[in-house]
Amino acid sequence: MSLANQIKNQHLMWRAGFGPAVEQLADLPDISSKQLYKALQKASSKKPEYIDVADDFLKGLWAGIDEVGRQQKIKDMKEEDRKKIQQKQRESVRSLNLNWLNVFINTDAQLREKMAFFWHGHFACRNLNVFYQQGLLDVIRRNALGSFRDMLHEISKSAAMLNFLNNQQNRKDHPNENFAREVMELFTLGRGNYTENDVKEAARAFTGWSSDLKGQFVFRRFQHDFGSKTLLGKTGNYDGNEVLDILLSQKQTAKFITQKVYKFFVNDKVDDEKVNWLADRFYQSTYDIGKLMEDIFTSDWFYEEKNIGSKIKSPIELMAGIQRMLPMKLENEESMTFLQRALGQMLFYPPNVAGWPGGKTWIDSSSLMLRMRIPQLINDVDELNIKTKDDDDQMMGKKAQEDGMKPMGYGKRSVIKATIDWKEYIGHFVRQKADSFGEKVQKEQLIGSLASNLLQTKSGVSSELIKQYADAGSKESFIKTATLQLMSTPEYQLC
Amino acid sequence: MVIKRREFIQVGSLATASLMVPKFLKAFEARNMVPAGNKVLVILQLSGGNDGLNTVIPYRNDIYYKSRPRLGIERSKILSLTDEAGLHPALTGFKELYDDGSLGIMNSVGYPNPDRSHFRSMDIWHTGSESKEYWTNGWLGRYLDAQCKGCDKPTYALELDDTLSLAMKGEEAKAIAMKDPKRLFGTANQRFFKDVMQQHKDEPGEQPVDYLYKTLSETVSSAEYIFEKSKFHPSKADYPKTDLGQNLKTIASLIFSDINTKVYYVSHGSFDTHINQQFQQQNLFTQMNDAVKAFTKDLKDNGRFNDVLLMTFSEFGRRVSQNASGGTDHGTANNMFLIGDGIKEKGLINPMPDLSDLDEGDLKYKVDFKNVYATVLKNWLAADDMAILKKKYDYLKFV
After folding, report:
1. I need a labelling partner for A418 at 20 to 30 A (CA). Which of A115, A147, A172, B25 fits?
2. For residues A202 and A199, what is the distance between their CA atoms, to the nearest angstrom?
C-alpha cells in the first residue's frame, strides 16, 4: 500500500510491542493498522504460561519450607547454607530476567507482554525471593489487559509487594505506613491527592495483611485493627479490600493511571484533553485496560506525526527491538544482564518503588555512546571495556571480598558473543522490497528502503553517510553493514 | 590580551593549543607549579554503608565494646585522636592529616526517617530529597544545570566511573562519566560519531532527536577537552595501582591542568559488611588510606591542597551491635571526613555519637546531610544552594 502505512504499522509495533519482527517485514506495507491491531489483540488473548525458573535446590527447600519454619530451623541455619540459598535466589532472579526478556523478543503476544512490562514498572518491586517474584510476574501478566481493579487487589495481596513495602510489620499496635503510602502515592491516586491522615487511616485498614513462608496471602486477625476509619471523606470499619475499592472509586485514580499510560505509550508531552477523554472512559468501563489500550491504538491521533519517533527507547525496548529485527543466537546470555545494568534498566531491579522515570533520563554521554555501539558489539565480538556499578542488593558486598588486594585494571571486559543469521534477515528484506533488490538498483534506494524499516524519526540520516561506511563488496554485505550503521545512529534510539 | 578560556579551547587541535598557551602559564610549568585556581570539591562515596563506629571509634565507651565483643577494635591498635575517639588502625594517613590540621570529622550525619535500603538511601543522598520523596535528578546534576546554562561542554562536574550516578544527573545537563580520558577520547572520537553529527540537519521546531544529538555533541567536545587537559600537566607521583588510587591520580592530573571542572565524584566499596567485617573493612580502608595519602601529598607538592576539599560519605552507617555473622547490619547516621588545607574546623567538629541514646539500636542523626551540601555549595563552590537543594538549609561552619 504505502510507505506511510508501513511507518504507521511500525509505530504500532514499537509502542504496542517490542518493535517489528523481521518476519513481519513483507506484511507491514500492506496491512492496515486496524488489522494489525486486531491481530495483536488476538495473539494476546490466550492465558499466559506461568514462568518458573527456580533452581531445583531452592524448590526442594521450598517444598519443605513449612516444616522448616515449624522447627524454627531458619534461625539456626548455618552461615554457609544461608549464603548458598541467597546465591541461588540471586541466580534464579537473574534467570527469570533473561527468560522474560526472551519472551519479549519471541512471543506473538506482544501486546500483552508490552503491557505487562509497563505494569512491571508501575508496580515496581524489589524482592530477592524468586518464588515471590514469579508470583508477582504472573499476576501482572494475567491481568495486563484485563481489569486494573483485579490486578490492584491481587498485587496488594502478593508476598512480593507486602514484603517489599514492609506490610509484614504493619500491626495494630505498631502500624507501618509504607505500604498504604505507596499504594496511594504511586499505584492509584498520585502525589498530592490525599492527606497524611488518609495514609494513617489506610495503614490501619491494611494491618494484618501478610504472607506465609510459602508466599500465600495470610490475614492475621490478631494484628488487624477492626476499628472505624475515615479516609477520603468516607467512614467505616474498613479492611484493606474496602480501602482499595475506595481508592478506585476516586476518578483521580483513573486519571493518574491514564496519564502514565499516555506518557509511556503515546507521548511524553501530555495532551490533557485526550487524557481526560481516555480517563473518563477507563473509569466508566470499571478500569478495563484492554478497552483503554484499544481506545489509544485505534485512534487517529495516535498516528499523528508528532507522536511517531517521539519516544526514547528504554534499554529493554532497545535490546529486544534489535533482536526482533536481527535473528541471532546468543552464546553468553549474561551479556544481556550486563547490558541492562550498563544502560540503567534491569528487569526485576527497579531503582525504587516509583519505577523507572524513563524519557531523557535514559540518555547521558556514557549510555548514549554504549547504545550507539551495541550493533557493532553484537556483530564484531568486540570488547566492551566497561564496569557497571555495584548493586549491593544483588551482591551484598561480595565483590570486595573476591578482589581483596589484587591490583585492579579496568575490570571485567564483557563480550557479547552473538551469531546473527544474516541470511534470514536478508531473505525477509528481499521478500519485502523485491524491487529494491534488482540488478540496477542504486545504493541510495537500498539505504532508503532499509532506513524506512529501521528508523521512525522525521529527520532521516544522510544516505551519503551510510554509503560511506557500508561494505560494497556484495549486495549482501552492503545490506548487512548498512543495517548495522543505521542501527548505530541517534535516530535509532527513538521509536 | 585576555584569552577567554572557552575560545581558547574551541580553536581545536593540540598543536594549535600549545602554541597559544600564554607565556605566564609556560613559566609556571617550568617552575613545576600550577597557577592556583578555583576551589574544587572531590566526593568520595563509600558504597554499601560503611560502619562508622569502627571508622571513628569511641574507644573509651564501654557500650561500644559491650555491643561488639568480637567486632570491637582492640584498644591498643586504635590510632588515638582525642581522649574519646580514635581511628581504625588502617587509616594511618588520615591520622597524619589530623595531626596536620587538615582533617575534619563530622559525626552523626543522616536525615529524618532514615531508609535502610541501599538504593533508597543512596538515592536520597544523591538527590537531596526527603526520605519519602522520589526525585529523579541529583544535587550535583542540578549544580551543573546552574553552571552550564548554554555551555557546550558539561565538564564542571566529572565522575570517575563508566556509568553515571544519579547524583550527577541534572534536569537538563548531565555530567560526564569516565575513568580514563584517553579511552573516553578514543571511544567518542570514532569517525562514525563525528560524521553522524556533521550530517545532521536540524529540523524546524524542537525534535525529540535533538536531545540525542546535543548529548552526542557535548560528549565528543567534552572528551576532546578532557583528554587535552589530562596531558597538560599530568601527575608524576606514585599512586597505588588500585581502582581508587588510579582514579585519584586522574583527578589530580586534571586538577593540575586547570580544567574547568569543579566537582569530581569517585566511589569505593563495597562496604556492605553483613559478614566478616574485620577483613573486608581492613582491606578497603587500606586501599582508601593509601590512595588518599598519595592524593593529598600530590596536591600539597603541587600547591593545590588549599583549593581542594575532599569529602567522604556513605548512604548509611551500621547498627551499634554486631550481628551473629561477624558483621553488622544496615543502620542510620554516620560520620563524614572533610579533608583539605582550606577547612575552617578541624578534628572532631561535633561530639561523638551518644551510644546510650539510640533509636531501637541505631544511632540518631544530629546533622542533616543537606546542611553539609548547602555549606559546600555556598561557601566552597559559590553556588546557589537554595535553587539546587530546592530549600533553604542552614550553613555549617567547617568551610
Report:
1. A115
2. 5
Indicate the SS3 state at residue A330.
strand
Contacts of A392 in chain B (CB under 8 A): 47-49, 118, 269-270, 272
Q: Report the distance separating Cα A200 and Cα A179, nearest Å.
A: 11
Which domain range does residue A426 map to? 421-493
Please give the interface size between A and B, counted as residue pairs whose CB atoms are below 8 Å apart: 173
Torsion sign (Cα): A354, A355, A358, A364: positive
- Report domain B56-389's class: alpha beta
Q: Do A365 and B177 touch (CB under 8 A)?
A: yes
Strand order, beta sheet including B56-57: B56-57, B86-87, B79-80
- For chain B, the structural domain boundaries read 56-389
A192 vs B: CB within 8 A: no
Cell 544481556, residue located? A336
Note whether B152 contacts A: Cβ–Cβ < 8 A: no
Quote ipTM for the complex. Answer: 0.90
Question: A residues 60-79 near B, CB within 8 Å?
Answer: 79
Q: Digits of tens for pLDDT over chain A (495 positions)?
A: 578 899 999 999 999 999 999 999 999 999 999 999 999 999 999 999 999 998 888 888 777 766 555 544 555 667 777 778 888 888 999 999 999 999 999 999 999 999 999 999 999 998 888 999 999 999 999 999 999 999 999 999 999 999 888 777 788 887 788 889 899 999 999 988 999 899 999 999 999 999 988 889 999 999 999 999 999 999 999 999 999 999 999 999 999 999 999 999 999 999 999 999 999 999 999 999 999 999 999 999 999 999 999 999 999 999 999 999 999 999 888 899 999 999 999 999 998 888 999 999 999 999 999 999 999 898 875 666 677 787 776 666 665 333 322 222 234 455 788 999 999 999 999 888 776 666 667 888 889 999 999 999 977 889 999 999 999 888 899 999 999 999 999 999 999
Instruction: Identify whether A91 is part of a domain.
Output: no
Q: Does B217 touch chain A (CB under 8 A)?
A: no
Q: What stretch of H or E contains A237?
A: none
Cis peptide before A335 (omega within 30 of 0): no
Q: Residue A75: inside a domain, yes or no? A: no
Backbone phi and psi for residue B319, each to the nearest 5 degrees, phi listed first:
-65, 155
With beta carbons less than 8 A apart as the criterion, state whether B136 and B167 touch: no
d(CA B115, CA B120): 7
The structural domain count of chain A equals 1
Query: Chain B residues with CB inside 8 Å of A372's CB?
Result: 193, 216
Alpha-carbon torsion (B254, B30, B309, B139), positive or negative: negative
Find the helix or strand (DSSP H, E) in which B263 lies: strand B263-269
Contact B169 A361 (CB under 8 A): yes
Distance CA A131, CA A66 (A): 15
Please check whether residue A435 lies inside any domain of the structure.
yes
